[in-house]
Amino acid sequence: MSLVDRVRALLGSDAVDLAATPDGVPRVAPASPDAVALLLGTAREEGWHLRIEGAGSWLPTDAPADLALTTRRLDKVPAIEPQDLSATAEAGIGCDVLRQQLADRGTWLALDPPGLAGRTLGSVVATASAGPLRQGFGPIRDHLLGVTFVTGDGRLVQSGGKVMKNVAGYDLTKLEAGGFGAFGVIVLVHLRLRALPRADQTLVLEGAREDLTQVAEDIAQAGIQPAALELVSPALARRERWALAVRLAGSAALVAAEEAGLRAATGGRFAALRADEAHGFWMRAAESFATRPVTFRLGGLPDSSDELLDLLQHQVGDEWVSVSPGVGAIRWGGETTVDRLRRLRRTLAGIEVPLTLERAAWPVRAAVGHFGAYREGVGPLVAGLRRTFDPGEAFVVAVEGTE
Amino acid sequence: MTPESLVEALTGIVGPRHVRTTLPERITYARDGLPTHRHVPGIVVLPGQRDEVIAIVRLLAALGVPFVPRGAGTGLSGGALAAGDAVLIVLTRLNRILKIDPVNRLAVVEPGVVNVRLSAATAPHGLHYTPDPSSQTACTIGGNVAENSGGPHCLKYGVTANHVLALEVVLADGQVVELGSPGGEPWGPDLVGLFVGSEGNFGIATRIAVRLLPVPRAIRTLLAGFGSLRTAGEAVSAVIASGIVPAALEMMDQSCIRAVEDSVYAAGYPREAAAVLLLELDGASDAAVAADAATIEAILRAHGAGELRTAGDAAQRERLWLGRKKAFGAMGRLSRDLVVQDAVVPRSALPEVLETISAIATHYGLTVSNVFHAGDGNLHPNISFDGRIPGLRARVEAASGEIMACCVAAGGTITGEHGIGLDKLRYMPLIFDGDSLAAMLAVRHVWDPAERVNPGKVVPVHACREWQRGAGRGRAAAEPAA
Q: Mutation test of the interface with chain B: which of A45, A102, A162, A170, choosing the one with the most B Cβ atoms within 10 A?
């Protein structure tokens, strides 16, 4: 029996789409977590290699594989609990659809990941790609109460739970968030929500990059706690100069007080955006990264933003850059080469700044790896964890490069 | 190697003063904060330097001897007890604050630094370390990392895992690994996140980089009394749903209120109230906090708050908090022994679950007092009893089991901040199936293949489905669950 016939027999003929992928790899869309487990259990027995796909709008769907496993039929939202500010959603739900369903119940998932609005929740979690809201609400992992995932040999594993605090057992959710699918396919996510902010105000200041990083520092010193504080390159902001955008969200009283504090601390130079302008500003910045051939992120210290931007400008350019100076995080998008990426990662490792390759074509991912330049002792731990969760190497994921 | 020669080798590393071998010395370490578990360790060693920790772990690795890391011993799960031939490594002498970086708002500490000491040291910079377990005047940052500790102010600011940036860890074989980065972005998968809360099973953290936050410029602390646990629970849900996130939202029931008011920690709580809520709001400006406080007060009144008070100054605020933080100590007045339980439920389930717990207490003829992190749904039903009375311990155990089962049935979990340790091993199969438990055990083996670090804790091995032995998938548990 051929591979495709075998999968059809397992999951039903409607689960397989032969002509869907540009590279001719059969695409399989299991309709339930159990079906994912069944598929991967069989993959382990048969030695199949699979790539994991969501909506196909972020990571290029080009990894060489026997099958493409897409989560797009795992698109249910089993629970939204406004009273508890929690929700449970399947991994294949589009973030835009989920966001609307949450808003209808007065709740908000405080995430603004890079990429198109329809990017799947599973993709955002698996790649831990936080956006500007990480300033106020933390990285992706801070929004997760638990996940259910399927290992490379078809085991359904549950981690965490649905409640706000949970220290029962080891926190495998942390491994799945940002594991790029190397440790399992995420099928179900339990989320921590916020109440939909009563007020949501974005203010923007344009200027020279160095001046704006100083303004960002002034804002931090003034004790203002913005939801987002983002320094955006001119191309990304679609403005003449660099833009420092401040997003304030919360109760009307809180936002009014924070805005007054912001104006007092910065000499009243910020311009307030209308709601539609603010939406457009943040959406364009997020979506632009999906149009660049390569995207990576750096995790530096707040006081290193200028130095890191200088380094990027020198080595790979700084046309498409978004910086959260309050937390030291930088996202870069653009066109570059394997050699430049490797050199940049080595340079950054020397100053204790990790570079995580977020998206690129497969040849670049395979050569550079999502991760690299590990600190002492980390490599064997990562290898051990991969063997644990994917003993047959079913998942085609460029965890490390080939250097 | 004989026990005598092991003692000699350890003495060679740390000096004779820091190896404890006599029974009176070792008995000191036989318990943690939970009275229901007791193991007198065979050997206790107290390294004072990171290099001594590495040397000890390498020595024990070479000999195949298990060991248990321990901080201040304030844990509440029996997690830091050493049974059998395991050596207890007490880390309280590694108590140096190695670095405070006010610009980047981070600190690097050794594991034995006492929680509250770090905030005191960073206060001159207008910064503090936010996770604040009730034991914060005694517990160590290393212990907090092992347990992923919480505390009242974790409602707004998150638990320990949200504040740890990087770790230096000594693995079971003595190898030193560096996890995370000063900025918090991992080098690869989030091994810091995986390590935090692993209850000492993955190794010993010898250096810990943590995030610091600005001390809030404006704070308002409210106390609200309620006529029933149910209305207090409903008020909690209403506050959470309002969109205002308090820095802390704590609840105490009448038994707890009276224990506090009868103690030296008397805080002026209303003795006749069935429950009080202690709620704190903070922010960057007085105006914003005052406006949110007005909204919250209206919500509390609408949900039946009788007495409603606002701390007028820092001293009043401190007094209100002292009563809450010392409530466990005050409950020592109620009876000779106290079991501090820990579970989490969805916040909307609080009213029903509190009533069920009350019914369980009545059924078993036990005194249960509740003092807990209501804003997170993190319950602490505390059972006061006299362990000398025959049969009473068994009733406490049975009641604890029923309380856990009721919380799980409500969609909750068996621990929110105290950990599994020894105490809750038997409840793990209530919330995890055999494959999920086996996955945890397999992860443990990546860090510690021989299970020598804090053996016998966290994962109930008998309940794990077989993992990675050929076609183990889907197979039933090797042994029946206890």
A: A170
